Amino acid sequence: MVAAYARSSRLDDAMRIFEQMPDRNTVAWTSLMAGFAQNGQNYSTLELFKQMLEEGVVPNAFTFVTLLGTCADLALLEGGKQIHGHLFKFCNREHFGSMYVNNALMDMYCKCGDMGSSKSLFEGMIEKDVVSWNSMITGFAQNGLADESLSVFREMVQGKARPNHVTFLGVLSACGHTGSLAEALQILEQMEKDYGISPRSEHYAVLIDLLGRKNRLSEAIELIGKAPGLTNHVGMWGALLGACRIHPNVDLAMKAAETLFRLEPSNAARYVMLNNIYIAANKWSDACRVRRAAEEKGIVKDVAYSWIEVRNERHEFVAKDKAHNQRGEIYQVISQLLDHMMGAGYRYCTSDCYFVGGDDAVVL
């Protein structure tokens, strides 16, 4: 019942049943934690783990896989390392060395940017499955280590391991980081010819992004037309719109944006990007028209935030947010940095602005 309620996003009911249980064993705790994790309540998941240990309940391999996934989602490297340490204490040798647990560990380290630890785990695995290989290939690609990603893929193929669509998405992303268009096209062909895997919209989106960054926009639009049954995918049109901002092409940007407005009418980022493309082209009336259209539809851009992990605690910062309890010290340091920047000859804009060029700035 705990698991059923949790999977149905009825966390209050799951907690109520859990608290009524006379004997809360490892399965009950793990089911509750998994439910909270699946519903995005990651910090609550970690807090439940602390309570579980305080009650003397011994976690198992499934508990740790849930916790490692939580740390990966939060990018809590120190927390993930602590969970890794608990594995030595609680898991027997069979569970600790299992491919299931090792894959979760690798994924956590990859998502937290610690590719050294992930690589060490990978190289120490006696048995590897496609998830193991994919974690390394995707992890290296996402952390900007494209050459390493491609090297692992070649090793995978040479070792007779069979890749899947996730493998090729990671490899194509690596090609995107290196700008290797020829290799990306060759890999796309290899997917179908050698492995019978039909490219999905995500694969085409990576190629369109790569073509766009090389200012080969006509080829990018042709590729969208050739994608079988995928011509209305937001990822591909989004990549094309992004390319139009890098290499100004107002006409094509309008076409891409109109398609995106139809496919995802509430996505404010598309309106912002088209607005900025118009501004870069000095088309101020068109830029104002896009902003008015977004305002009339009640579309509001999601607030961006940055974060940093200090002493195993995650601190989030939102623009103009003054809620942080150390804001005085933070602002003092920022002020000192700005003084150093000004002393070095830099100038900054005190408002949210879009830079057109030189010293000119237009407040949005």
UniProtKB/TrEMBL annotation:
Residue spans of the PPR repeats: 25-59, 129-163
GO biological process, one term: RNA modification
InterPro entries registered for this protein in UniProt: E_motif, PPR_At4g14850-like_plant, PPR_rpt, TPR-like_helical_dom_sf
Keyword Repeat: yes
Keyword list, A-Z: Repeat
Taxonomy, superkingdom: Eukaryota
NCBIfam families membership: PPR (TIGR00756)
Similarity remark: Belongs to the PPR family. PCMP-E subfamily.
Protein name, as recorded: Pentatricopeptide repeat-containing protein
GO molecular function, one term: RNA binding
Coiled coil: none
